[in-house]
What does this fold into?
Amino acid sequence: MIPYGKHSIDQADIDAVVDVLENHFLTQGSKIPAFEKAIADTVKARFCTVVNSGTSALHVACLAAGVAAGDMVWTSPNSFVASANCALYCGASIDFIDIDPSTRNISVEALQVKLNTAKHQNALPKAIVVVHFAGVSCDMQSIRALTEPFGITLIEDAAHALGGQYLGEPVANCQYSDMAILSFHPVKAITSAEGGAITTNNPELAHQLQLFSKHGITRSALYTPQEHANEGWYYEQQVLGYNYRLSDLHAALGMSQLAKLPEFIEARAAQAAFYQQQLADLPVVLPTVPDYAESAWHLYVIELQKHSRKAVYNALKQRNIGVNVHYIPIHIHPHYQQLGFRPGQFPHAEHYYDVALTLPLFPSMSKQEQRYVITSLREVLI
It folds into this structure.
């Protein structure tokens, strides 16, 4: 079976993990701050906090933003459920902004309309989780211009977009946002087996992110009473935090993987370009990348124009091609319907879901495997 996504592990990655097992602390040692600095340097952000998953990163970002009961958070319906669940974890309410059919990201026009309506109803959100779907950045400059007058916290869900660019700069540098989250799940640009991170340029947010991800505890002399400055054992819990810490084992793997990020993204871009060339004459809508962005190509999603998605999906699966669907719109999941959402509320996201099909794309996919996917798709569609 050719999977839709797959991690690439080499001997250097294995050696990095074995080195920790043999010579270092397994949990909270020197690899954690080194990995945090490497990520911050890579995306050109001032601060980075690593955690045990992208979902934890979203939760911690919402906590640092002060999201709580009585608040509202907005996000895209075209995402994994974690992009919305993070608000619910904080006791807040959630709502959605429909997507732009061409980018499959949050529609700037829909956002403007929703903000104007919310302003008149005194129902503006505390935060917006802006999802960079499939590796393509949202138009963050435009989104920031719309939200800044209202003091809305912007959190970039860049789980798909590490290695991508916006206006010539790395995604997650937080130039137009307050925080950005990353994911190191095995199908993402790099992997730490499981893991995630939050970047920011705000030192107070950086402190809050560290607190909430580590039990709410600090040992820092900057945040503890002066009378305990010479007491090496002293620590104190300042907020109700969570054990979302990443281990040194995971960080060592992540560090080794991060060194290969440019080659991983180059391989993904080459595969995407080959798909674009070879599928151009088929009855499908191919993904597009706006001029302001360079995609990280986490996913390669086509939209079927004439054929049943279920029939195409099953036919390709029978040929041992691990196609997938990203995503079932969050608002139509049963849990969200229990919260009052209904099909028909976000029509662009729903139409996209009805016809979307994710093709295999990952750095180690061979040209032979990709040609087989293309040939099989042709046989099914023509």
Remarks:
- The chain has two domains: 11-258, 261-381.
- The chain has a mean pLDDT of 97.
- The two ends are 23 Å apart (CA to CA).
